[in-house]
């Protein structure tokens, strides 16, 4: 079953639940989605849920389409750190491919040239 969508209505809040490619085992819970209207009406409660760790992220819907993601600070900082780690790993791998040993300086040569 691929891309099956369910729309549920609960006290004028639209909640969306998606099942994405069951054979891969990916599942998005309905509580991870929030309409923009519900967010505007319940901003304080939503922020408290993020702060307390009750939820880590919320996908904000506008006209039943995903428009934004709201993350806890902890989740955002972890995401930023992971992106930076991946950037540095990519840079290191790129440098390995262009490394020319004949043009490099040994540690001792660097210390002689720049060391104290």
What can you tell me about this protein's structure?
- It contains four helices and six strands, in the order ββββααββαα.
- Mean pLDDT is 76; it is low at 1-27.
- It is elongated.
- Helices cover 43% and strands 29% of the residues.
- With 116 residues, it is α+β, with helices and mostly antiparallel strands.
- The termini are far apart.
- The strands form two sheets. Strands 1-2-3 form a three-stranded antiparallel beta sheet, with no helix packed on it. Strands 4-5-6 form a three-stranded mixed beta sheet.
Protein topology:
Elements: E1 4-10, E2 13-20, E3 26-28, E4 33-35, H1 36-41, H2 43-52, E5 57-62, E6 65-71, H3 73-98, H4 107-114
Parallel strand pairs: 4-5
Antiparallel strand pairs: 1-2, 2-3, 5-6
